[in-house]
Specification:
This protein is of the alpha/beta class. It is 58% helix and 19% strand. A hairpin with a 2-residue loop joins β5 and β6.
């Protein structure tokens, strides 16, 4: 119950009007990623994002998310991105490599470009755990990611304005010299 109240509080504070978002979605485990995408779109729409201000891009799997994210971020068209994927542990170590490199790649893309990239990649032991996080017992992490994208987009804009405001007096002083 507390989790639902927290999500509702964040939703009530979210204002996505005028913001543009890119969403990269892994087609692998699409039963889960489609539900996460629906949740993210719902959060953005309920917060005032226009349908035309959301671009959805599909990639084969979670491992391909970082490259797509970096290219979208470098386009300069988006205030924030959401990377949606689902990796479920199998019988080999493949899971470990995909999870680790996907997380690392998305973090590097975010740090290299300065565009917030929300990590909505479920890394689960079982299909049931994934279902619980894609609209089941643990809510919809896609919805939560949509709210996080709005919050980070607004924060990024605020920080950019703060930096620009702080630089302006210093630049005026340099011009006088």
């Amino acid at each position: 119950m507390a989790k639902n109240l927290q999500s509702e509080k964040l939703h009530n504070q979210a204002d996505a009007s005028g913001l543009r978002f890119g969403i990269m979605v892994s087609r692998f485990n699409s039963l889960i990623t489609d539900r996460l995408l629906d949740g993210a779109i719902d959060a953005l729409a309920r917060s005032g994002t226009a349908k035309d201000d959301v671009k959805i891009l599909y990639v084969p799997g979670a491992f391909e998310l970082p490259l797509a994210a970096k290219k979208l971020a470098l386009s300069g068209e988006y205030h924030a991105l959401i990377a949606i994927g689902c990796v479920i542990r199998g019988e080999t170590t493949h899971y470990d490599y995909v999870c680790s490199e996907t997380a690392r790649g998305l973090q590097l893309a975010q740090m290299d470009t300065g565009v917030p990239i929300i990590f909505c990649v479920l890394t689960c032991e079982t299909q049931k755990q994934a279902e619980d996080r894609a609209g089941g017992a643990h809510g919809n992490k896609g919805y939560d990611s949509g709210l996080a994208a709005i919050e980070m987009a607004r924060l990024s804009l605020q920080l950019s304005a703060d930096v620009a405001g702080a630089l302006a007096p210093a630049e005026r002083k340099l011009r006088r010299a």
